[in-house]
Amino acid sequence: MDLNALLSEEGRVDPPALYARLHHEGVAVPVDGGAQGFAVAVHGFDAVAQVLKDPRFRQLDAAYLDLHTPQWRRHPALRVLRDSMFFTDGPAHDGVRQIIGRAFTARRVSALEHAVTGLTERLLDRLAQLAADGPVEFMGEFAYLLPSSVMAELLGVPQEDLAWFRPRVLAIGAILELDGANWRNMVRADTAARELSAYFTDLVGKRRSEPRDDLVSLLAATDLSDDALVANLITTFNAGFVTTTHLLGNGLTMLLERPQLRAELNAHNVGSYVDEMLRFEPPVQILVRYAPEDAEIEGVPCPAGQAVLVMIGAANRDPARFTDPDAFDPARPDPGSLSFGFGPHYCLGAALSRLEGQVAFPALFERFPKLALAQQPGNVAKPLILRGHDTLTVACHGG
Ligand code: HEM
């Protein structure tokens, strides 16, 4: 595969067209020229799941950066990411994941349902007010605010601080893109990482002296090191809403472009709708792993130190796994996807983000039955790791 094809304007506008071509070439292909240290792209559904659970393939951890970016410790953003469970494997990862996983038990998540419903209603009230003056920017006024408010509730971050977070979270997200770690983005991400670290260090201090029933208090009472504590708070907080924000924006567009399916959406079938939205247009299209030792994937060699493009967005369109994979069909007989990953790093927030989608979509259409796109989002080139709309203007007509 030519990595440039994926990174090109055309590839970023319509990745499924490229995915369809890849599916004609087996389940994994060499990346031409080993561009950017990538040796293999894996895109078949089963092969992707296999790589994600195979301990021979690791996250781009500190050992990987020592090899490819020896100066990385000078960058606060890279240090924060590497101190978090996202970029560690093995026992170190499992221990932290177990501690943080306690916050995401089914019981805790279902206890949040009430809060999710209340926050949704409040945001819809605000949308209604804004709509009196004309079209509304859905991403900023709803898709960002719902998941970030839910995360704030879960972690114990004051709601009034959320506006401060958004640019900082976006700055860290930018360096995770395939070609995003350029100098300009790194400078911004480093500043954001310094500010977010200071913010969470302060919050941890406050919760240590006055614990509350929130995730920060729970983690502050564990024996996690301060660096690991702050790094995991920053990354979990960010992961908790950048992705769900895109689920809400991508999902809304899918519904508004399909009036028949939108008319059939109700509180009973919304679970299948949300799962199909996640399959069809996953907020995270690509994961990355590397091989510390020489390895191979379905016959394609991955030399030691080289990275793998793990294409979950393509796996979700694998014709060997899904009938008519390019059709958006909430009633499909073969549901499922790899949109939350697979194996030891499987998303801890899967149940929570599904819940948010399941509450938000029916509530949105109940409040604004004639909700419509005020402007076509258009076929614009978008990032691949975190994929969604920057802005989405809608007309919130009432009944
Ligand atoms: C639609 C929304 C979401 C999507 C598409 C999504 C996607 C993912 C994916 C693909 C991974 C695997 C990363 C990898 O294997 O490298 C992951 C991991 C993770 N996600 Fe999510 N996520 C979503 C929402 C959330 C929410 C709401 C939270 C927190 C409340 C969250 C917290 C996490 C954490 C902590 C991990 C790391 C787990 C680990 O490394 O063991 N995510 N997510």
TrEMBL record:
One of its GO terms (molecular function) is heme binding. SUPFAM superfamilies: Cytochrome P450. Pfam families: p450 (PF00067). It comes from the Bacteria. Keywords: Heme, Iron, Metal-binding, Monooxygenase, Oxidoreductase. GO terms for biological process: antibiotic biosynthetic process. Belongs to the cytochrome P450 family. This is Cytochrome P450. It comes from Catellatospora coxensis. The lineage of its organism: Bacteria, Bacillati, Actinomycetota, Actinomycetes, Micromonosporales.
